[in-house]
Amino acid sequence: MNINIQTLDFTAKEELNEFVKEKVARLGRYLDNIISYEITLRVDKSETNDNKIADIRLVVPGNDLLASSRASSFEKATAQAIEALERQIEKRKTKEGY
């Protein structure tokens, strides 16, 4: 499984990269056929505090799963996007009859 993290317009600290990798790797417990994870972290140019955006794409056979979240920190945005992906995985498993 390949974890690719892109940061747009800033350089992420190693602690943030490790946090993101650790959180997304947990999704493998819910779905065993994940080919790769593609994470994009970016800062929005808005005036609000909620200007950190995390986009997570799970590359799986069939249709990929996508989630995006905006929060005051990258850690919060990542956690929220992962929660959304967990709900998508549960919905997909129910639909496909896992």
UniProtKB/TrEMBL annotation:
One Pfam family, short name: Ribosomal_S30AE
Q: Which InterPro entries match?
A: RHF-like, RHF/RaiA
**NCBIfam families for the chain:** yfiA
Protein's UniProt name: Ribosome-associated translation inhibitor RaiA
